[in-house]
Design brief:
By secondary structure, the chain is of the alpha+beta class. It has one domain (about 5-130). The protein has 4 helices and 7 strands, in the order E-E-H-H-E-E-E-E-H-E-H. Strands 2-1-3-4 form a 4-stranded antiparallel β-sheet. Residues about 120-130 have low confidence and may be disordered.
Length: about 130
Amino acid sequence: MSKEIKFRAWDRENKYMIDHTYLACYVFKDILEYPNFELMQFTGLKERTANTSDNKEIYEGDIVRVWGGEYYQGYWEFDMVVIIKDMINDCFYIGESEYVEIIGNVWENPEIIEKEENRKAVVLNKTSLW
């Protein structure tokens, strides 16, 4: 089984995402030399949600929620937000999770990162009280 190699790019100047289908229209060398494009590679993984008909592809820079395991008293055994920076280490959580949902990306949704960092700080503060 071979991995499909695709890229998308964030245009920093115009503030929009260029999908892999449109990116194919550009000469790859020009994209690499153009400083306003931030390239992101397809991880080879897709969302796993209840709505399996529209499972989106996961790219570097995506922010995903992963959850699963035992469900007890309204909580999942694990439930976390992962920012895909490193395709090997960060994708481990995705491969091991029952459910994976893209909730944004680092370019269009920086508020998610800030919210998650605040949530972690609150959890750490609660943990340090014990």
